[in-house]
Every structure is written in C-alpha cells, then in structure tokens.
Known about the structure:
binds 1,4-dihydronicotinamide adenine dinucleotide; alpha/beta; Rossmann fold; 7-stranded parallel β-sheet
Amino acid sequence: MNDKIVLLEKIHPSAVENLQAQGFTNIVQVPRALAGAELIDALSDADAVGIRSNTQLTADVLHALPRLRTIGCFCIGTNQVDLNTAATLGIPVFNAPYSNTRSVAELVIAQAILLLRRIPEKNARSHRGVWDKSATGAFETRGKLLGIIGYGNIGAQVGILAESVGMRVCYYDPESKLPLGNARPMPLDELLRQADVVTLHVPGGASTTNLLSAERIALMRPSAVLINASRGGVVDIDALNAALRGNRLGGAALDVYPVEPRSEKEEFVSPLRGLENVILTPHIGGSTEEAQENIGREVSDKLARYLSAGTTRSAVNFPEVAHQQKEVVSRILHVHRNEPGVIARMNALFAESGLNIVAQHLQTRGPIGYAVTDVDAPIEQSLMKKLCGESAAIRCHLV
Length: 399
Ligand code: NAI
C-alpha cells in the first residue's frame, strides 16, 4: 500500500513490523518530537502520523496538513492533539487505552503483597544492617478482602489477579458493572470499613478529586493498606500523611501524586518521603516493555484498519464504524457535516452513475457524519469529484 505513514518520537519497533506485515511500505521514522515548520514539513505529504506525548498537533498544524487522514497517539493521553479541530477536518484520532492495563494490575498485586508483609520496612531495616525477623503485623494476602474503587479496565483486571492469589474481592463503581470472577459490588463507605487492601482505579478530574478525603480515610481499618495508581488528586495527600504518621493506617503504595516532576531533572517532593511503610514509585504503573510493544501494535493496527478499510472503532474524536473486511471492488469513506439529506444526495450520485450499493454504514457524532459505502464496481474519478464536492462533504476517499 502506498499510503505514507510518518512515525515520530521513537515509537516501538512493533508498530513498523505490524504495518509492514499488513502491506504498508512507505514508512518514515523520526526519532524525536518535531514542532513548527519542521513538523509541518515532515508531515506535508503524510497520510497518517504516529506520535507520542511530545508532538503538539494544534489547530494551526492540522490546518496546514490537508493531506493528513488519520493520527495515532502511541500512548494513552490525547491532550497533545486538538481533537475537535481534527474531527471537523475529518481526521480520526486513535490511542491505546488498554495496552498497559495488565502492567498496572500486576504492580498493584505486587504492592498489596509487599505492604501486607511489611516488606518496605523490612527492606529499609535490612539496608541499615538491622536483622528484623519478626512476623508481627505481617500477613498473607490469601483470604484478605481487596476493595477496588473504580471497577473499569484496570480495576476489573486487578480483581481477577487478586482472586488468583486467594483474595476476596469487592468493588465500588457508580456505574453498574458486570462482576468478574467472584467479585461483588459494595457501597463505598462499607468497602472502606471492611477491606484489608483498598486500591483506586478511577479517572481523574473534578468528580474524583479528594475522593479519599480525611473522613473516608478515617473509615479504613488501622491495619488496612491503601494503593493509588490512578490519579494523584484522588487522595487527600495531607490526610493520608496524617493517618500514616498517626498509625491509623497500615501502609500505602503510591504511583501518582497531586504534583509530579515534569522531568527527571526536577526533584520529587512529597510529605510521604521517608515513611518506611510507604512505597513510592514515579508514575510507572503502566511503564513496561510489554506495554510499549502492545501500544505499538494496537495503535498501528488502528491506523492500518482506517487507511485500508475505513474502520474508526475506538477513535477518540470521531463517529465509530466497526471493522468490515473489504470484500468489494470499491469502498468510499465519506466524512461530512451532520445535516439532513446528505446520504440521500450521496446515494443519488451513485444511482446516477448506475452503481449498486452493496453495503452502507453511517455513524454520526456531534457535528460530524461518517458514511462507509461499498460498491461492487470501479469508481470513476468524476464520481469521486462529485462526492467530495457535495455541499456538506468534509472529505472523501476511495480505499
Ligand atoms: P476506566 O475508564 O476503564 O475505569 C474507570 C472506572 O472508574 C469506571 O468504571 C468508572 O465508572 C469508575 N468511576 C468513575 N468515577 C468513579 C467514582 N467517583 N468512584 C468509583 N468509581 C468511579 O479506566 P482505567 O483504564 O481502568 O484507568 C483507571 C485509572 O488508571 C485512570 O485514572 C488512569 O489515568 C490511570 N492509569 C494509571 C497508569 C499509571 O501508570 N499509574 C497507567 C494507566 C492508567
């Protein structure tokens, strides 16, 4: 396939391998983030671009790239792309929301075991030459109650792994969720009162800021441990600090913080530094080789499917059309303003050309409509011109 794909910022080699295996040969790799004129120049003839978190695809940049058809964010976050502008220009944006789910879940289970066995303290003492063999306050995870707050992708995986080491699992989620394994839903305050290990897997934002407030931390058992690998603002860090220093909590493991250093050069500052029953990790819950490899494969798959078949399933800013194998001669991808009459006018153009529509899938999202039309005949350039020139059309392609 001739589509040009530019991959910036040292994306994992699994992406190129996957794209090549699917027949894409025109791939250009740039090992760093680009900006300004250099970025526009590098992408001027690209059909697709892959970025990580350091390349800013602003409205100005996107408007300067009329050829660009799709964007892959080889990471979880998509703040670096102006998603609304991309949508209004007919550019679906993809990311990798699940690639590091398992990495986070494994770390949480490890932290639960280490905290219940008081390993952080034993480790610190051993480093100081103290030989503390006491079993006091060290517990197995088997039979203990794990309370999961936020039973989404990561929370549910944590629950499954926890059961495999013999834990009992309960969860709190405001949405109704299918419980996996033997997990059971529980009201939040009851979960906090009962659980031996409480782990947070909620989204960030105003609705979850200080979800674990001083009052809620006070509900926890004094022997219980708290794990937060979700977002820093979810726990009232001063209240947690007070509870730990006052021996009102058994320990904690934190991977995320209200304020995090922006680079390795900045010092990590936290009131919890120096507490021996606390594991502090630098936001690496999802940072594993496997996660990077998975991200490379997951996002490159999404780009390949869009370029070759128009699939937009799981796009973050775009109407979602599920994958359908292209088994016809021509497939037309038509992005248009979501207004009455577009499909009727489009289909009239097909009929005028004597073309029979084999299948058609339409989805809309806000102001954008997206129609994928299969026709079992070649499409003349003159018809493509009319479809692309249709009054509500934003862009259209033949794949
Ligand atoms: P998800 O969207 O699949 O699950 C979040 C769940 O939280 C949903 O089921 C939602 O209904 C629930 N929820 C929302 N508000 C809630 C509330 N007030 N109380 C209880 N539950 C609530 O998200 P996913 O993928 O499981 O990620 C969870 C968190 O983990 C996110 O904050 C994400 O940013 C973070 N994360 C951290 C990583 C790390 O390196 N430490 C890596 C990957 C994700």
